[in-house]
Structure formats: C-alpha cells, structure tokens
Amino acid sequence: MTPQMDREKFKQQMRVELEVLMEEMADAVDNAPAGRIIRDSEEKVRDLFGEFRRKAFEEAMQAKVDAAEAAFPPPNSPATGKRKRNKGKQPYAILTINGRIRVRRIRWHCREEGSSTLTDILLDEAESTISQGTRELICRLNQSSVSFRKTSENLKRAAQIESNAESIRQLVEEEGKMVLRLQARGELLPSWSSQDCVADTGKTRVYASCDGVKVPLITDAEKKMRRKKVRDRRRRRGCKCKPLARARQGSDNAWKEYRVVAHYDETQLHCHVSVTRGNHEVTGRLMARDAGFIDLQDADERIANVDGAPWIRSQLELHGIVEYIGLDFYHLSEYVHDARRELFAEDVDAGRAWVETMLRQLKHEGYQAAWDTAIQCRAKASKSKRLALDRLLGYMSERRQMIRYPEFLARGWQIGSGPIEAQCKTTTARVKGSGKRWDGPNAEAVMALACLENSRQWQTYWLSPDPALN
Prior knowledge:
17 helices
C-alpha cells in the first residue's frame, strides 16, 4: 500500500476553497438580471466549479506526493553507493480530465545517473504528461470532428481542457498507431467468436467481406511547398529557430487505395473491422489474421459477399477463409442498368421491363436464365448496342461462380455487401473532406480508431492497462 495523504489537512485546505466557491457562485446568480438569471450565470458557475475541481485534484495529488516523499529515505546511487543530491522541489505538469494540474516533487541528482524522482511513476506508471482519461476524451471528440483545430475548440468548450491542435494531432495519430501495433501482436482481440454468431436456423454463421476505399494523401510536391512556406515565415520573423525535423517523403499520388476488412454475423451485433494501406497480399493476410481471431473455421456457415474485384476473391480462396463467395447483387444490378441505358435510351417502359426481368432471373432463377435473356436481346440489337451487352456478359462470365443468388436466398443468406460498404464510409469519415491531406501511416492510424469503435472494442482498449505499456 502506498503512503496515505494527510486527509484532515487536505480537507481543511479545501474548506477554504469551498467557501470562496460558494460566495462566488452566489454572486453570479444574484448579479444576473431578471429574465436572464440562468443564461447569465450558468457559464460562470460551470467555470467556477471547473476551477474548484482542478484545484481539488491538484491539492490531492500534491498531498499524495508529499506523503510518499516523507515515507521514503533519500535514495542512494547504485553506481557509487552515495546519497543523491537534493535538487529541490520542481514542477511536473499533467493534463487530466480535471484540467491541467501541477505538482511539485523532489528531484534527486548524481553525476553518474543524472536527475530522477521517486514519485512520477507513483502518479502514472507511464510517466505521461497527458492522462489516459484525457487521451480517450480527445480521441472520442476527434472521431466526429472535421479537423484537429475543431477538436481543440470542442475540447475547451465541452470539457474545459485546453490543448492546441498540433498536440491533439500527434496524440490521436500515436494512439491509432498503438491500436494497430496491439492488433498486429494479437493483444487486442474481439470479445466474440464464431460460436457466438448463431443464426435463426440454429447454425453458426459468419460473413467475411473486404473492399477498397480511396484516401486523400499529401504528395511530395505539396510537402515541399508547405516546408518552403514555413521557412519563409521563419525568415520574415528574423529570429533564430530550432531546425525543422527531417522531412518525410510524401505520396506519389494524391489518392491511394486503403483496404477495409470486416467479419460480422447476421444481425451485425458481432462485428470486427480492420484497415490496412498494404497491397492485396497484405490484405489477404489481414483477412486470415482476423478470421483466426474469431475462430472463423469453427463456424457452420462461412460466407463472403464482395463487389467482384478479382483480387478479393483470389485472396479469400488462397487463405481458405470462407466456403461460399457471392457477388454483391447491387454491383451486378449497376451493370444491368448501364446496359439498359445504352440499349433502350428513351424507351423507359421497355427498359424498365427488361431490367426487372434480368434482375428477377438473376435473383430467383440463376445465372443461366439471365444469360439466355441477355443473349437473345443481343441477337436483336444493333452493332453499336451490342457493345453494352458485351460488357455486361463479360462481367457476368468472369464471375459466374459467384452469381448464386437463388442458393443464397434459399439458405437465408444475405446477397449484398452493404455492411462492408457502410464500414468503408464510417472508417474514412474523419480522413476525407475539403482540404484534408494525410501522410500514409497517419491516415491509417486515424482510420484504425474508427475501426476500433465500429468493432465495439473502444471500452476494451481504454479500460485495459495503459496501452503504452504493452
């Protein structure tokens, strides 16, 4: 047990502060004009209580430090065996959800080891200057923010915590990278497995899916331009500045494809989402890794609904992730509608009837019936219109083994990839938008936090021992 603070002394100190708080709160309410009492006093009262909370927490931390320092003798140097020199009490600032607090603790010094303290690790084993509660709060606010500057403003307004946009950016990106590292090491696992995914039939059923999504990245040319502007501003100020950090190379293109992987059950109450900026082979290994996390091989029914990209199918088959691979019905219907626009042009009624026939046959009769209908239409079409049907037929032919809607529907399985499409939208919501440009690793980190939330692992991550120590 750690040394206990002097509680009576602490309470006595805070009674004085409490009396001042009550007086100031009464003044705020009494001095507000009639008809505007709540409006003109609520902010003042909130600020008063916020400052009181900060002072109370700071005084409690200082009392704990004083008790700990009084309980332990001055340390000796392991190298020399001599007592270290007392450098006096020096301040230590920590940003907490109760505000920025400052405690004073003794620093001990010896020439061989430098300076150290006995109490920093007592306050926070990571010896971090930002508490875990504050880090979570910042990451939460950032999830639905449009910029780090806006996150900073919301943090100050909602939680009375001040932190600049650059500090918030670094914190959020570092936290996202920590999530990726823990997932890669298998230390941040889903709270469910395939055996929890019981469908109406009584069998366990899990869907796997994957899709690519474009993310805006900062190009190398843009990086150089930004760096030049920073140098120009420094030159105009005319004062000596710390040298700029070594520049990280930018992207060769303004947009790059990232891959989102999802495993989910029939109701999506169980869902696990991951993201990678790697190529198709990296994505395949990621799908296999996540499948292992949830023991996918133990599921009675393992199904994939994908958009028809050849690399997704090849990776699913290479790693043996699922038993059945289906083509998303919406993607195929888009090709049918594209053909309809070319074939029937202004004949809306005929075009609608043809589309309804094709989609009904695909869904309830199968590939061959729809193929025959398209072939018959092609035989009557002009040469220019045949090209539209050839594109549709080519698309269908390459994915013939994936067009199995009657079988899927008979078994009560989904035939759409809507869940993965929705995940692509939510995981990129923070990184997309006007003027946003990212370094590749940083975009992946911010998306990883969105995946953490979509996988319902937010509390698992933040309530676990300090992630930075893992």
